Amino acid sequence: MYVILPDEDAQVAFGAALGSALAGRGQVHLEGELGAGKTTLTRGILRAYGHQGAVKSPTYTLVEPYRLGDVEVNHFDLYRLGDPEELEFIGARDLLDDDTLSLVEWPSRGAGWLPAPDLALELEVLDAGRGVTLSARSAYGEAVLARLETPAGLADSQPE
C-alpha cells in the first residue's frame, strides 16, 4: 500500500487510522531519512489510544513507554544505537512483548536482534508532503492492512 500524505495533519490522521487498525499490538518498523515524519506518524498512532501530549523521538533514551488505558506502546528510536546488543542491556526484550505495540524508528540499527515486524513502513519526503509505503510482513500485518481505513482525501496512491 502506498499513500501520499500532503501535510502534517494528514500524517497524524493517517497515523490515528493505522493505530486503530493495529488494535494496540504488533511490531511496526518505521524507516526513512531524517525529517521524513516517523515521529509525526507515531504521534498519530498514539492519538488513536487517547494520547494528546507531545511526542518526542527518544533518540537518547532509545525507548519511550506509553501506558494508555489497556494499551502499552513502546516507541523506540535506534538512530544512536551503537550495537544491537545494547537493546538487551536496556531490557528491550521484555518491552517487545506480543501484547504490546512496538513502534521502532531506524530498525536497521537493531538488525539481527529485533523481532521481525508485522508491518514495515518506509517514509519518503516528497516535494509536497510525505509518501508512505506499508508492507505486511506477517499474517497479523496483513490483517491490519485489511482493517486500515484510509482517512478521507488520502486514497491509496501509486508511487510516481
From TrEMBL:
Pfam families: TsaE. The keyword Cytoplasm applies. InterPro entries: P-loop_NTPase (IPR027417), T6A_TsaE (IPR003442). One of its GO terms (biological process) is tRNA threonylcarbamoyladenosine modification. GO terms for cellular component: cytoplasm. It comes from the Bacteria. Keywords: ATP-binding, Cytoplasm, Magnesium, Metal-binding, Nucleotide-binding, Transferase, tRNA processing. The keyword ATP-binding applies. Its main location: cytoplasm. It is found in: Cytoplasm. One of its GO terms (molecular function) is ATP binding. NCBIfam families: T6A_YjeE (TIGR00150). PANTHER family: TRNA THREONYLCARBAMOYLADENOSINE BIOSYNTHESIS PROTEIN TSAE. Belongs to the TsaE family. This is tRNA threonylcarbamoyladenosine biosynthesis protein TsaE. It comes from Halomonas salipaludis.
